[in-house]
Structures are given as structure tokens and as C-alpha cells.
Amino acid sequence: MAVGVGDAGSGGVRRRQRGCSCAKADFFPEESFSSWSAYGRALRSTGARLADRLTSRSLESTELHEVRARSGADMRRDLTWWDLVWFGVGAVIGAGIFVLTGQEARDAAGPAVVVSYVVSGVSAMLSVFCYTEFAVEIPVAGGSFAYLRVELGDFMAFVAAGNILLEYCIGGAAVARSWTSYFATLLNHHPSDFRIHASSLSADYSELDPIAVVVIALVCVFAVVSTKGTSRFNYVLSIVHIAVIIFIIVAGLTKADTANMRDFMHFGVRGIFSASAVLFFAYIGFDAVSTMAEETKNPARDIPIGLVGAMTLTTALYCVLAVTLCLMQPYGSIDPDAPFSVAFADRGMDWAKYIVAFGALKGMTTVLLVSAVGQARYLTHIARTHMMPPWLAQVHPRTGTPVNATVAMLVATAVIAFFTDLSILSNLLSISTLFIFMLVAVALLVRRYYVSGETTDANRNKLAACIAAILATSVATATCWGVNVEGWVPYVVTVPAWFASTACLWAFVPQARAPKLWGVPLVPWLPSASIAINVFLLGSIDSKSFMRFGIWTAALLVYYLFVGLHASYDTAKALAAESALAAKVEEGDGKPAQGAVHDGEY
């Protein structure tokens, strides 16, 4: 089935009728790709087009109507707050708690891993608040990509979009590989027994995992059939999963030994924050719930309850589970691959490891399901803007699901899961996620304090200066921590400077917009704190992960300059031409037509 955006005159995006097709026009319908000579002209205009996209911001109405219409069929509004709560729980509780807890307790934080979970949980909750306000006001499938397009513009949205897609592929791959480990444990094997060792490959990519590929393929089938059906299946599995978690806590505490907690902070404060940066992986998934806003019956009520409720429940369970694990075993003896199963076996409850493994498999299955639903909706909305081929934006008219995007994302996830070690995946995933969450917090400040045509130049400049100062002081604090600066003197300078920057924004820049339905409390303090914590946790991640992140970002920029820039430019100009034509035909009040280019927006 193909649906494109069409011949709008000067915009040069050709329209196709819905139907089964994989022709060139389904992937590159824009004028810039109509011939090699047209593409050459587009490349020669790269500088001017990039300048245009750097300053262009989408309108809310464009995201809600014109962009969404490019998928052809609409997604079904079937979901309630009950669905969202269980999607949130199902999305978050999986490989993070069942695998990374053991890894970080043993190697990074010791019993203080519970404090690491608190730090990560606070950061995640602040991000949840920011996401919730956007999801209520702009209930579309694009999630943070759509929010950043509206507030920070096309270019920043694309950079974030690439990292969103990387986040989902890596997250799904990590969970799928963990699924294999617990499946092996359930069958009384070592966690790595079902992987194939390829000695000719690098050590980090030599443990091949065919079971992970099969699991991802099965999840793909569920995800494309029905969102509501996936939701029902998810909350049944999630309820069973919660029951298993309660069993782990109760049974584990019967084998508790408080002596295991005596060396509580063996690795010091640095170990706590280093573990927090990696354990942020355990909270990843709630942003997938925001992508379901387009399918929610009452976004203003359902999204706040769903997101905040799921995150509160998840954080509480994580902390109790971490304490339980550290009470059962000395941190140095915790198994990094299947910590809870091995802990029960070592404490004489060998039978319990099968319940733990079963529960872990249930949890990881729900994480994969929700991830598959969320990542497809991100890619669908990105493709609606033509930054990715519009063939990926198609929504199947019978199932109401984005089949092409779902299959494409899960194929990429399966390839990564087949080769890549979990430790590489978790660190790289945390960088992408923390970076995106930081951008969403910045976008929320822009949303509250800047409205084009209403905010004065003086207030706009003060806003830009305050945000720059918040970012600079946050980066300075994270840099001091990352390079292991001795003493507390640098932090006595950078932390009060961050506080002063936020206070200046609060005192000297008036808010230009109030939330219509639901708003983040204590603005600008909570978004600013979210920026500071996310940037600080970035400073705790190893340098090799930043190198991989840099390589991926460079690849994104190459794609954008040669493909995404020209496709999205043509599409935006086509939309502006349609709006201008509509303005001539209809009687108006003198204001620009909705979606027209005006003051850097369209």
C-alpha cells in the first residue's frame, strides 16, 4: 500500500493513490529526486536549504493535521489510561532490572546500587513531566520528534530523531539478548549456552544470538496486527510479571543477610553516579507511551495518569528489588547475566530460579512488545515529514497500524541483537536517551517562554542567554565529574552558577504561554533540573561509548545533508504553497493561513 503527498505545484511532491506498491515514488516522491539533474541542483542549494531548515519551526496544527494526514489511514483511538499505565509498566520493567542490576552492583556501585536507581528514577520522572505536557498538547505519534520540530526546529528534531531510532533499536536488541540468557536459565543451562561463538569476529560482536532474532520476529507479528490487541496481551503479561516480582521480593527477603549491606558504598559516590548513568537504561521505555497519544481516547486525562502512574510504580519496584538482591548475596558474588536466578540457587532455593526466569521472560516480552509499538510510531511520524522515505509512514487501512515502519525497525533491531554484546548496547543506549531527554527539557522551556510574534526581542534574547547558561553550567559540572577533578571546589562554582542561571530565567523572563490542559509544575526549576541531571549522567559514561555516539551522529548528518534535508525542504515548501493557495480561495481575517511560512515557521 502506498500513499504519498502530492503535486502541490511549486512544492514538487507528487501525489500517489493508496495501493500496493514499492516504486521509486513511494520512497522519493520529492522534486529534488525526480532526476539526477534535479538532485544536482538540490545539492548546489544545500547551504541555502540548510539555513532555511535551521530556522524553521513546525506549527502544532501542522503536526496534528497536515503531517498526520500523510499516512493515509488514521490510527485507531482505542487506548485509555489503563492501557497506558500497563504499557508504561510493560515498557520499562525488563532487562534493566533483571540484568543490569547485577552488573552494576558487582562492578560499579555495590549495595549502593539502590541509590543509583533513585538518582536515575528522579531524572526519569523529571523527563516524564516534560513529555507529559507535550503529549497532552500535541497528541501525535511522533513523540519527542514532533515536540522538537515545533519548538527547536527541523534540524534539531532530525538529530534527535536519529538518536531516537538508535535508542529503540539498541534497547530492543539488548532486551532480546537478555531474553536468551533467561531462557537458557529456565532450561537449566548457563546464560550464554544458546549463543554461537564466532572466533573470527571481534570479542564484543562474536557471541551470535539466533534466539533473539526469532523472538523479535514473533513480536513483530503481534505489533502489526492490532494496537488494542497488543495492549490487552501486554497488560495480562504485565500483571503476571508484577506477581512474579512480588514473589521475588517476599521470597528473597526470607533469605536476607544484613551483613551483605555493611560495605554499602564500596565504590564511593563516583560509583553511584556511574551506575546511575547505565541504569537509566532500566527506565527507558516510558517515552514509547507518549507516541501512543494519537491513539488515546482522552489525552488530557489519560496521558498524565498513564505516564506518571507507571513511572511511580516502576521506581518503587526497582528500589525494593535492588535492596532484595543485595541482601541475598554479597555484591562481589552477584552474577552479571542472571543475578536473581543465580542468587536464589546459591541460597538453597534452586527451584525459585525457574519462577524468576519465567517472570523475567514475561517482562522482557512486554518490553519488546511496547518497544515495537513505540518505535514504529516514531519512524512513521519522521517519515511523514519526508526526513525518512514516506513509504515508512503508511498506515494499513485494515489494522490501523504502521506495518512498514514496524517491520523495518524490527529488522534493524534483529541484526544488532544477533551480533552485539549487552554492555556495549546499554552504554550507547543511555547516551542517546539522556541526550534526547535533555533536548525535550530545553524544548519545554522554549515552549513556555517563547511564542513567535508575541515574545519581544529583549525577552527572547534573555531566554536564549539563560538557556545557554543552564546548559554551560550543567556541562561544566558534568565535565569536572567526567575527568575526575579532585576536590569540591569546581562544584562550589558550577552548581551555584546553574542555580543562578535558572533563577534569572524565573525572575527576569515572563512566561509567554500557559499550558492549556496539563502543565509541568515549578517551571523553570523542574525542566532546568532535568537538563542538569541528564547532562551530569552523560558525564559518567565511558569515552568509547561517546566515540560510537559521535560516529553515529556524523553518519546522521551525512544522510541529512544528502537526502533528508532536500526531501523535507521540498515537502515543507509544498505545504506552504497549498496553504497560500487556500488563503487566496477562502475569505480570511487577514492572518496567515494555517501552515503557511511565517516568521520562520510553517
Task: Briefly note the structural class of the backbone.
Answer: mainly alpha
Separation, N- and C-terminal Cα atoms: 29 Å
**How many individual β-strands?**
2
| Helical segment count | 22
CATH homologous superfamily title of the largest domain: Amino acid/polyamine transporter I
If you had to describe this structure to a student in words, what would you say it looks like?
The structure is a single chain. The protein has 602 residues and is mainly α. It has 2 domains: 76-434, Amino acid/polyamine transporter I, CATH 1.20.1740; 452-541, no CATH class. Helix content is 67%, strand content 1%. It is built from 22 helices and 2 strands. It has helices at 24-27, 36-44, 46-55, 60-69, 81-92, 95-109, 113-137, 144-151, 154-186, 210-225, 227-253, 268-279, 286-290, 299-328, 339-346, 352-384, 403-419, 422-449, 457-482, 489-508, 525-538, 543-585; strands at residues 196-197, 207-208. Strands 1-2 form a two-stranded antiparallel ribbon. It is globular. The two termini are 29 Å apart. Residues 1-20 and 585-599 have low confidence and may be disordered.
